[in-house]
Amino acid sequence: MATLSIKSLGKVYPGGVTAVSDVNVDIADGEFIVLVGPSGCGKSTILRMIAGLEGITSGDLQIDDRRVNDLEPGERDIAMVFQNYALYPHMSVRGNMEYGLKNEGLPKAQIAERIAEAARTLRLEEFLDRKPANLSGGQRQRVAMGRAIVRDPKVFLFDEPLSNLDAKLRTQLRAELKALHKRLGATFVYVTHDQVEAMSLADRIIIMSNGKVEQIGTPMDLYLRPASRFVADFIGSPSMNVLDGTVSSDRRSLQLNGSHQIDFGTELPTAAGNQIAIGIRPEHLHQNTAGETRIELSVGFIEQLGADTVVHGTIAGSQSPLAVRLNGVQARDSGDSIALSCGRDQIHLFDGTTGQRLNWDNQ
Amino acid sequence: MSKARNNPLNSFAAHAALIAYTLIALFPVFVILINSFKTRKAIFRDPLALPEADTFTLIGYQTVLKQGDFFLYFQNSMIVTVVSLTLVLLFGAMAAFALAEYKFKGNMLMGLYLALGIMIPIRIGTVAILEMMVSSGLVNTLWALILVYTAQGLPLAVFILSEFMRQVSDDLKNAGRIDGLSEYTIFFRLVLPLVRPAMATVAVFNMIPIWNDLWFPLILAPAEETKTLTLGSQVFIGQFVTDWNAVLSALSMAILPVMILYVIFSRQLIRGITSGAVK
């Protein structure tokens, strides 16, 4: 069990492409960290640098205060689970789990003990003599986890381990993974592009885009106080409504692109005439007029999910798209109009050019 | 698709073509085999007849086993083939792994250079090779043949194997690295078992020309103690008289080991040739 410290980590590929730049994070012992972002954002590169599969161009990487930049993957005391399982196809489940240990020269009795324990934890006992080809996807991924567990590493690395599984199995394995983390108390670093996975698993999330860290924080930090427009858009499903507009001369309302105007009833924290964007989550718009900010939605199409209904449309009188999540089963026709309101404390403001969060006393 | 495959007419046509090909391919072997059991007169009277009670004889086999050191030739052929194949597979696979796995400057050029030998027949260099063998004192040793055959087999081996090794998943090798395996262990224990079908393909493609070669044994190692089977069989072919019984018997016996090796490799071979096509 260990801490992991990443200091101004950077990766530039030989062609001159910068994959990752200036990543700083201190990961505590036993923490479950999820790296999340769209494909190509550099999250897997960071994981591979931690694993030692990818060279580090700049910065320092420390596991338990030991600088590991120049150590081979096998010397870093880590274990990794891959998206496509990467099981040794010609070895049995037992063979897969014990191969690394045998190679380390661990005594046989100890190997057997560790495998028995891991097999019990992951409910793999009856499959120990099967080949990976004769296992289902979920079982294979459990074997891959078993192979990681038996090594008793300081840090576990997961590279989109659930992406190849179907939705139901993914939910099930997600729960198992969370339980496993609790039981082992080990440090987990987990890469995914699925924000639901990130939100449900992580102690802290590192959200990335274009090789840079956008925000590091607990899932609720990211949800409630997104540091940038990118984070706001990425976290939450359906994603946050972000509307561009110009601050009016009295700084109390926003002129949307189009003719529509949204009133706030209080001064915005930026100068008149500035371009800003406001963000409102679909679930924070309600069908009443209790909130300070009123918006009228012209219905486009609806998605009925049973527990709730997502209504997509545009703000009446403009072309700005807007989605709202309403409770329960709701029937609406295209062209209907719905009066909505939103509490001022649930409106996020972002700078129009940098996309950074603007803080205001909206509480 | 499955409808077309089940069509009895198509299936008949396919089988007819395959059977016709099999018959054509097996015919010479069959003729050699039946005639090796016949008397000389019977061979010439009716080459296609099966051996009967009055034409059956083992004289050819007896001649071969008595005259000429058949077992020594056999042993020489075996040593040359097996050692050459081993070296081709070992070095070919190693080079292929390096080309497929490591990014270094000139990787492409190196790959092209190693594959160049496929296009240039090694026999063009016979004189130079002979000179080299003479000056290094390797003439009339099995090593001369082994070295030449290894050189001859490597280009194709590198070419085929590197293609197959590129298909081995990177994650698998990386999983090995994280498990603390050395690059050698990854190569021998993870990658080689996975490209076994390709190895078998390369082995068969190389084995038959080596086993059947007459050219290099004749030039580089014609001494009695280093004669290979093919060369040894030539003693029965004279300018004026040819002992056909002996020649056919020797050839029949020479087929056997190749056939045994082929049966061993064939399952893997078919997988190697059809992999990618089937998946």
From TrEMBL, chain A:
GO terms for molecular function: ABC-type transporter activity; ATP binding; ATP hydrolysis activity. It comes from the Bacteria. It holds the Pfam family OB_MalK. Residues 4-235 form the ABC transporter domain. Gene3D superfamilies: 2.40.50.100, Nucleic acid-binding proteins, P-loop containing nucleotide triphosphate hydrolases. Keywords: ATP-binding, Cell inner membrane, Cell membrane, Membrane, Nucleotide-binding, Sugar transport, Translocase, Transport. One of its GO terms (cellular component) is ATP-binding cassette (ABC) transporter complex, substrate-binding subunit-containing. Coiled coil: none annotated. GO terms for biological process: carbohydrate transport; glycerol-3-phosphate transmembrane transport; glycerophosphodiester transmembrane transport. Belongs to the ABC transporter superfamily. NCBIfam families: PRK11650.1. This is sn-glycerol-3-phosphate ABC transporter ATP-binding protein UgpC. It comes from Parasedimentitalea huanghaiensis.
From TrEMBL, chain B:
Its main location: membrane. It is a multi-pass membrane protein. The keyword Membrane applies. It comes from the Bacteria. GO terms for cellular component: plasma membrane. It is found in: Cell membrane. Keywords: Cell membrane, Membrane, Transmembrane, Transmembrane helix, Transport. GO terms for biological process: transmembrane transport. The chain crosses the membrane at residues 12-34, 78-100, 112-130, 142-165, 186-208, 246-265. Residues 74-265 form the ABC transmembrane type-1 domain. InterPro entries: MetI-like (IPR000515), MetI-like_sf (IPR035906). The keyword Membrane applies. Belongs to the binding-protein-dependent transport system permease family. PANTHER family: ABC TRANSPORTER PERMEASE PROTEIN MG189-RELATED, ABC TRANSPORTER PERMEASE PROTEIN MG189-RELATED-RELATED. This is ABC transporter permease subunit. It comes from Parasedimentitalea huanghaiensis.
